[in-house]
Design a protein that fits this description.
Radius of gyration: 22 Å
Largest sheet: none
Strand content: under 5%
Number of strands: 0
Order of helices and strands: HHHHHHHHHHHHHHH
Oligomer: single chain
Helix content: over 70%
Structural class: mainly alpha
Shape: globular
Number of helices: 15
Distance between the termini: 51 Å
């Protein structure tokens, strides 16, 4: 974290702590509810799906509150709710209890995510691209360390071990909230006169980018869901390549995120980076498909090469998301805009398993080629979205400046 100012270091540390906790819990959550609590897998899936869908509703209102009341305050409140909800999971014994607690957690998580986005903008003012790249690097590292820690609990497979994970995640929320006390209490920025309450929903370029970003987000479950199934069911690659996929993906992102992401600073850079990401996915997806048609070691080599290329695409895509997601949003409404962006991303992640397992796995090699073309097409739209958004933002700023000048003149 050399070169970062104090506030940047605080937010990086807080985010790192939070993601260590996420890694501890998310890796073993399904096993805890099915093997320890003894709930049917179908009920666990239904509870988490219901919670996730309801949680989507809190992103934009939570972001709006962050804009009006200050992002630090709203994020700390949301983290406190998450800490309480996570602690309550150790007493869950029924589907109804799991659904209620998980829903509260997801509502708070959506609000926290929107406030976090607004906080990132307020903290990272010196070199925002470099700060965001460092932030994502440490976030990825936190998830990796948490996942490693979860492995010990999974190996022990006892209620006590899983309870430690749950309470560890709850403690990470609480510690993250406490660390935010070290940040300035950023005040709300004044909004232009006569601005609509839900400005993000009426910003057509940003709504279009939100849809684009949510669709491109299908690339994440490619690594966590689709490729492991493909390796185990359709290739002759050794089983260790399933574990290698996650390790290589995490390693590449941790090592190269700052190097690449720090160069993607402006919305224009973001539009181009989005296109580059699509082209890298266009290259990686056929490599993954080809692994099913090669001998054992060639298949393993192809999978390793493919996940390396795909991870580079992930870095370019995430960096583009930062540059466009923050750059196309007005400063005074960053929370609301980040809430909308989070809603689009979460909706894409909710739909991803069904799309990837039915379309891609159903079509086999052709499905992979179709997926690569889909990513490339999405990426190709990036520069056009950036130009549309920048043009619209410039016109809105000119109108606001004109209104302010007219209002000032009328008072004389």
């Amino acid at each position: 974290m050399a070169g970062a100012n104090r506030s940047e270091r605080v937010l990086i540390l807080a985010s790192f702590v939070n993601r260590v906790g996420n890694g501890l819990f998310n890796t073993a959550a399904a096993l805890y509810f099915t093997l320890v609590v003894d709930l049917p897998a179908v009920q666990v899936g239904a509870a988490l799906t219901v919670a996730g869908l309801i949680g989507l509703l809190a992103g934009i209102p939570g972001g709006h509150l962050a804009d009006r009341r200050g992002p630090r305050t709203i994020m700390m409140l949301a983290l406190a709710v998450q800490a309480a909800a996570m602690s309550a999971l150790v007493w869950v014994e029924s589907w109804a209890a799991l659904t209620i607690i998980a829903t509260v957690d997801q509502l708070a998580a959506a609000a926290a995510g929107a406030a976090w986005g607004a906080l990132v903008v307020r903290v990272g003012t010196d070199r925002p691209a470099l700060f965001r790249a460092k932030l994502r690097t440490y976030v990825n590292l936190g998830v990796v360390l948490g996942t490693v820690g979860a492995g010990f609990a999974v190996t022990a497979n006892t209620r006590t071990a899983y309870g430690v994970l749950i309470l560890g995640n709850a403690a990470s929320f609480a510690l993250c909230a406490l660390l935010l006390f070290l940040l300035p209490n950023y005040r709300a920025l004044a909004s232009p006169p006569q601005q609509r309450r839900w400005i993000a929903l009426t910003d057509r370029p940003f709504v279009a980018f939100t849809a684009l970003y949510g669709a491109m987000g299908l690339q994440y479950p490619v690594v966590s869901l689709l490729l492991p199934i493909w390796i185990s069911s359709h290739t002759d690659a050794p089983r260790w390549t399933v574990a290698a996929v996650s390790a290589i993906n995490a390693g590449v992102c941790v090592l190269l995120q700052t190097r690449i992401g720090s160069r993607i600073e402006t919305p224009r850079d973001g539009g181009r980076a989005f296109r580059t990401a699509g082209l890298l996915f266009l290259l990686s997806c056929p490599m993954m498909a080809l692994s099913a048609h090669t001998p054992v070691w060639a298949a393993a080599g192809l999978v390793v090469a493919a996940i390396f290329v795909h991870s580079l695409g992930e870095i370019w895509e995430s960096s583009a998301g930062f540059a466009l997601g923050f750059g196309l949003a007005p400063d005074h409404a960053q929370g609301q805009y980040q809430g909308l962006l989070g809603l689009g991303f979460s909706a894409g992640q909710a739909l991803a398993p069904a799309i990837l397992t039915t379309v891609v796995l159903g079509l086999g090699t052709a499905g992979w080629l179709l997926l690569g073309a889909f990513f490339a097409a999405l990426g190709a739209v990036g520069p056009s979205i950036e130009r549309w958004g920048t043009r619209t933002r410039s016109r809105q700023e000119a109108e606001v400046a004109g209104s302010s000048t007219a209002a000032g003149g009328s008072r004389l």
